[in-house]
Structures are given as C-alpha cells and as structure tokens.
Amino acid sequence: MDLVNQYATPVSHAMTLFRDSIALCEVNKRLTSIPAWKEDSSSPSLKAKGRLQQATLDLLSGSDIQFRRETRLDIALVKNLPIALIFLPAADIPTFVGEGRVDLGITGRDQVAEHDAQIPDGEVSRVEEIMDLGFGSCKLQVQVPQMGDVTEAKQLVGKNVVTSFTALTEAFFAGLEGVADGKKLRTKIKYVGGSVEAACALGVADGIVDLVESGETMKAAGLKAIDTVVESTAVLVKSKDTKNPLVDLITSRISGVITAQRYVLCQYNIPRSELSVASTITPGKRAPTVTALEEEGWVAVSSMVEKKKIATVMDELCKVGATDILVLNIANSRTA
C-alpha cells in the first residue's frame, strides 16, 4: 500500500508538529481531511526555524516516538504508538488544536496568543498550554529605524505598522489608544507574511512588530526595539476537548525528557556531621538519597541538580568537606 493510500485509512490518533512545528491529533478521523502533500516543500519558514524544528524532533526521539517522514509529505505514522505526526506551520497549530482536529501540539506561545486574540467576544479558547519546553525563547517586539526619532511605541499611534501578528498588534495599539474592543484604530496595521523587517526600509511602514531572538536580523535591518508585546517560547499545548488516553502518556514522556535535559545527577561522599549542610546545597527534586558507607561516620549522597548550577554547587560542596564528587548525565526521567 502506498503512503497516500495508507494515510487515507483510519488511524487511531495523531499529533501535530511545526514544520516550523509539530502536533499530535486523534486520528479516528480520516487523515485525508488534513492536507498532507505540499508542492512547495522548501518553505522559508522551515529554513528560518530549522533549529527549533530539530529541538522538537530531538524531544520526540527522547520520548521514544519513532517515525520516518517520507519526502514531501507532512504526515508521518508513528511506528510504536497508534498515532500520527502532522507537520504544520507553527501559526496553524493552535487552530487545529483549538478545533479538536489534533490532540497535542508543539508551537510558540506567541502563536497561541495570536490565535486567542482572534477569538470573538463571548467565546473561550479551546487551546490549553501544558508546559514550557525550554527552547525557542524570543520576544514579539515593536521595532523602528535606529536613525529615526521614535523612541516610544505611543509615537507610532496613527502611523503605519507592519506585522505578521495582526491580532496581537491591534490589541497592543488599542491599549495605547485607549480604544475599546471592536472600535476602529487610528494606527494602520498592515499584514505581511514574511520579511517584515524590510517594511521600514521600503517605506511601507513607520514601525513593525516582529519576533526577535538574538537581535541580529533586527540590527542588520537598521532597526531597534522600543517595546515588547509578548514574550514567547516553545510550548506543548492540547485541545481542551481531547479524550485521547495517549495525551497523558506522551505529556509524561516529554516532561521526563525535559527534566533530564535540565538536570544532572550529583554524587559525593560527605562526613555525616556535615550532611545537613550539604543537603541544603543539594536538596534534590524532593530530597537527596543518602546511603551509609563502610567507613564509619561517612555517607554517600546522590541528588539531582540543575545543570546550569552544577559548577557552583560543586564548589560549595568542596567547602563543606565533600569528596569524590561525580556528575552524571541523565538520559531520561520520570519525576513528580
């Protein structure tokens, strides 16, 4: 059976990722209802977000979600679980998740905020954030030409502002203008799907609202940030309407991988008389594991420590008499 026909058959569950991003959705629905074939597979967003996509794929690999993605297909069946992965633009994932078409999604918090900002009054978002995945940090910022005289966002009121995030931008400037929801803004918000940073140089905009990660692209375009609309990072989201029993399983696996990435296992020997002091240095996730040594008056301690703090922790342990200090990487975990 070829892949296209295979995806036309009912599957049991599915998950969306970003092509840019990824998502997991229930697949008792026929997958032919989701566009799986893209003629233009060399999406600019894929190139721009390749590092984030790789971080997502590494997260799935660590969660033992095994799949092989065929060339030019945006759907991949998971080999060891009854789910499918659907590769979508990051901006589309909150819509698929919110409508219950997919159960889980990995996308940016900014994309969820943009989706929620478009929901009509009286309606509630069906997208629920489960956890911060710890990568892809960036800010949606108001930017203006470095050589210009604009230093505050309120100076752009009534002028032209270009962005890919029209709903968040409109809400931001509505606040500056003191305009109630639904009222017309004096600020002219224009949508551009890509190369937003070029809008000022081309005379299309007086300012832009765009994502900033390192700031290199912004500086290269001769722009400076003057305000922040929202801070973002990659997040795991789920549909509030999902009844898929695999959602909790996959969430637990992903959480375990993230914990393993953030922590190391620190082991050392310490005189029992100094144990209470050492335990304050390495309290662990719940409490350190303490084991008596053959040598009287000594104990061995094992504790999880945040990776970014381990050098300082080792220094402090040496000061209180700890010896034989070892640091071990954690391949995976399940913690409370």
From TrEMBL:
PROSITE patterns: ATP_P_PHORIBOSYLTR (PS01316). It holds the Pfam family HisG. It catalyses: 1-(5-phospho-beta-D-ribosyl)-ATP + diphosphate = 5-phospho-alpha-D-ribose 1-diphosphate + ATP. It is an enzyme of class 2 (transferase). It is found in: Cytoplasm. GO terms for biological process: L-histidine biosynthetic process. The keyword Glycosyltransferase applies. Residues 90-255 form the ATP phosphoribosyltransferase catalytic domain. InterPro entries: ATP-PRT_HisG_long, ATP_PRibTrfase_cat, ATP_PRibTrfase_CS, ATP_PRibTrfase_HisG, HisG_C, N-reg_PII-like_a/b, N-reg_PII/ATP_PRibTrfase_C. Residues 260-332 form the Histidine biosynthesis HisG C-terminal domain. Pathway: Amino-acid biosynthesis; L-histidine biosynthesis; L-histidine from 5-phospho-alpha-D-ribose 1-diphosphate: step 1/9. Keywords: Amino-acid biosynthesis, ATP-binding, Cytoplasm, Glycosyltransferase, Histidine biosynthesis, Nucleotide-binding, Transferase. Its EC number is 2.4.2.17. The keyword Cytoplasm applies. GO terms for cellular component: cytoplasm. One of its GO terms (molecular function) is magnesium ion binding. Belongs to the ATP phosphoribosyltransferase family. This is ATP phosphoribosyltransferase. It comes from Aspergillus clavatus (strain ATCC 1007 / CBS 513.65 / DSM 816 / NCTC 3887 / NRRL 1 / QM 1276 / 107). The lineage of its organism: Eukaryota, Fungi, Dikarya, Ascomycota, Pezizomycotina.
